[in-house]
Design a protein that fits this description.
alpha/beta; 443 residues; 2 domains; Alpha-Beta Plaits; Aminopeptidase
């Protein structure tokens, strides 16, 4: 038998180890590609979560900072721990479950949504993305797959009240915003404290660009396009900006029986005309912009008294900030004309919960589309007409959103519904996109 040098044998051993490492890596990647979420577990957890804040109409009123919200958050944290995540609440009240990766130097892949609802809302808005994110982490945990990157599952605080948690995470939550009263009756400051955050230390909740590789959010569409066109997945191109104003109309309260019609300064009449003017302005130009007057209160609120004061809301949404500003200027001009005609005063006060338009990352969109295609799912590129935490996160990291169908296009309603198979499809696309990013395919 020929003699070989130690160098030769060391080279043979090194080649063998490299080959084994390559085979192991290929096998691990193949296992990861074949991973699927547990559809029944997602559905069951959605149903359990819907018990917190359940209303008689079959939906939920789990508004942020309420007792129902706190109970739901406790349930979410228990699921995170079951999925092998280390759980904490940051200073803004965001719930963050973390799982370390193989390389501590790498930034984390963060994904999640929210669980707070609007008053008299549904059981799927935010919940699908939150439960789906935890499911992805649990599938990896159960299969013993440790990623290169750390993973962070986030459930943001008070999304419905102005993207409060995500805004705090990017360092954009102002002292003025903390004073705004939420649907729970608490101010944002009081609410953050009630859910375990610390509004006096918001700077500690701020994260930086270097902290994250990417942010992903699974969400119901909240519109009817995917359902009507029988498409499985929406790959979100961008998220509209949203601006809110409180509109105050001051007239003169007087006796309804003794004040002639031509002598009145009726604040409610002016408000009605302004609501019609909003619709006229917003529909006067081409595009997908929308405008809404969703809340109106009249004082003193008696049948026999002419309303002397009205407070109403105004909301404008579009992918272009310039268009939103242009529409608002036109609405102000209409308001001035209405005020002069009705003998009232109309003023606008911007509410500091506005969100700017945000485009998703083109590279992330590509990976989401590839994941859907590999899973045999149909998909289409589409904008989001609703605001989401992803638009805040897009300001500090590459972000992407995955939509699944809303039956009948119904959302913010107890009749909101997404089929179990669609929830599972979205979670599987989320899982495979996370794996692609971890493999270094985000280039």
């Amino acid at each position: 038998m020929p003699k070989f040098s130690n160098f030769f044998w060391r080279a043979i051993i090194s080649i063998s180890l490299l080959a084994n490492t390559y085979v192991f890596a290929q096998t691990a990647h193949e296992i990861a590609r074949n991973l699927r979420v547990n559809a029944k577990r997602i559905e069951q957890r959605i149903l359990v979560l819907s018990e917190f804040g359940k209303n008689p109409q079959g939906g939920v009123s789990r508004v942020a900072f309420s007792e129902a919200d706190i109970q739901g958050r406790n349930y979410i944290m228990s699921l995170m721990r079951e999925a092998g995540l280390t759980v904490r609440i940051d200073a803004a009240g965001n719930i963050i479950g973390r799982r370390e990766g193989r390389d501590p130097k790498l930034p984390s892949i963060i994904f999640g949504s929210h669980i707070d609802s609007v008053p008299n809302g549904g059981n799927y808005d935010g919940d699908v993305g939150s439960i789906g994110a935890i499911e992805c982490a649990q599938v990896l945990h159960e299969n013993g797959i440790v990623m290169r990157h750390p993973l962070e599952v986030v459930v943001f605080a008070n999304e419905e009240g102005g993207l409060v948690g995500s805004r705090a995470m990017i360092g954009g939550l102002t002292a003025e915003a903390l004073a705004v009263k939420s649907h729970s009756g608490k101010t944002i400051r009081e609410g953050i404290r009630a859910i375990g955050g610390d509004p006096d230390k918001l700077s500690e909740a701020k994260r930086h660009k270097d902290d994250f590789k990417a942010y992903l959010e699974l969400h119901i569409e909240q519109g009817g396009i995917l359902d009507a066109e029988k498409i499985n997945i929406g790959v979100v191109e961008g998220i509209v900006g949203i601006k809110w104003w409180e509109v105050t109309i001051e007239g003169f309260a007087n006796h309804a029986g003794t004040t002639p019609m031509d002598k009145r300064q009726d604040a409610l009449l002016a408000a009605a005309q302004l609501a019609i003017a909003v619709n006229k302005v917003v529909t006067s130009v081409p595009g997908r912009q929308v405008g809404t007057v969703g809340r109106i209160t009249a004082e003193p609120g008696a049948p026999n008294v002419i309303p002397g004061k009205v407070v109403m809301s105004l909301e404008l949404r579009d992918l272009s900030s310039e268009k939103v500003n242009s529409l608002f200027q036109s609405i102000q001009a209409e308001a001035n004309a209405i005020a002069q005609k009705t003998g009232t005063r109309i003023s606008f006060s911007s509410i500091p919960t506005n969100s700017i338009p945000a485009l998703t990352d083109e590279r992330v969109r590509k990976l989401i589309a590839e994941s859907a295609k590999a899973l045999g799912l149909s998909y289409k590129l589409m904008p989001s007409g609703a605001g989401h935490d992803a638009q805040e996160m897009a300001r500090i990291t590459a972000s992407g959103m995955i939509f699944v169908p809303s039956v009948g296009g119904i959302s913010h309603s107890p009749k909101e519904f997404t089929k179990p198979e669609d929830m599972a499809n979205g979670a599987n696309v989320l899982l495979q996109t996370i794996l692609k990013i971890d493999r270094g395919e985000l280039k």
